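ok so for the tutorial part 2 we go from a plain amino acid sequence to predicted structure tokens. step 1 is just haveing the sequence, like this:
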Amino acid sequence: MKTKAVLFDLDGTLLPMDAEAFAKAYFGGLAKAMAVRGFEPQKFIQSIWKGVGAMVKNTGVRTNENAFWDAFALIYGEGVRENEPYFEAYYREHFDEVEKACFPTPKAKQIVDKIKNKGVTVALATNPVFPQIATKKRMNWAGLEEGDFALYTTYENSTHCKPNLDYYRDILASLGLKGEECIMVGNDVDEDMVAEELGMKVFLLTDWLLNKSGKDIGVYPHGNFDDLDKFIDENL
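step 2 — the prediction. this is what the tokens look like for a chain of 236 residues:
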């Protein structure tokens, strides 16, 4: 079946990064920004992780945004929702400082352009635990922009997260495509390669590999950006 779309993960894929350094800079920066609002940093960071956990467990009955804030409200009370504008201010004014944990490559833009020039749809299948403003900034760090993608997932427009197959089903439904018509490219064995179960071809980018389960990556087409480029040529 002809490939009609290529789905890309962002963090560690189109945007090479040290995931541990990124998380440290991100959570540390957000906690510092919110300390002036009375949030004790350690409890705040633990609460953010609980919010992320709520999004990962989301079953589709609410947006990930609502799942996050509902979890946050269980800890701090309903009044905590009044702080949402201050979260957005952090992303707008300070989130760019986190880019220091990233290592953008021009190869990301080159391969996206190559796919688009072949008349194939490109979608950004980044785990939707970030708001749109933070997703657009990370996209820009990678040398990409909204117009490069037919869709991109954020916590506002999504009701599931990776590795839930319903996350990928939602994207397929939005694109009007079958799994067999798509390729999923990512660096996380557990979260990205699961798309294969829906009939997608997959490619595991190994420059910043995440393999928490210690799986044999030899069962997947894999390699660096140059290997990905060859894989795209062979499959489009």
